[in-house]
Write a structure and sequence with these properties.
Helix content: 25-40%
CATH class of one domain: Mainly Beta
Distance between the termini: 109 Å
CATH architecture of one domain: Beta Barrel
Radius of gyration: 41 Å
Structural class: alpha+beta
Mean pLDDT: 79
Strand content: 35-45%
Number of strands: 8
CATH topology of one domain: Lipocalin
Shape: rod-shaped
Order of helices and strands: HHEEEEEEEE
Low-confidence stretches: none
Number of helices: 2
Amino acid sequence: MLQNELAKKKSRANTMRSTRSKTTAKKTTPKPKSGGSKSPKHRSLLLNLLASCVVLFFVGFGIKYAIDHTINYNPLLGKWRAQTVLGIMEIEFDRASMSSFGTKNPVTYDVSENKVIVMDDTIKVGSTYKIVDENTISSEAGGFKTVYKRVK
């Protein structure tokens, strides 16, 4: 009986060995990377850097926009149109210039509560524009009052 038990144990051991995989793990050597491609780590670093630059760009313009519309607010900026006896007259005010009658002249602005003095830098002459409301201004020249409406 003892021999039967030993024979059973041997046969079990042999079946256990036969069910195990006979193949050994294959060791692979890493392939050398070519110099032309970048690793994924470098790509993600470049993408993060690019995304950061884009975000900073938009934040910078947001700050500039906020400052221009709060601290350096100029109600004249934009295009204005007036109906006069001579016809339709248009003027356009930029940050540093004014366009009228087809010419663009450098100007400086002196903004107060209800009026803006526009000083032409080339001829050193100023014009005063009274702020009637957000979309209406007026000026007086030679005894004639001209009312301008904002062009949208």
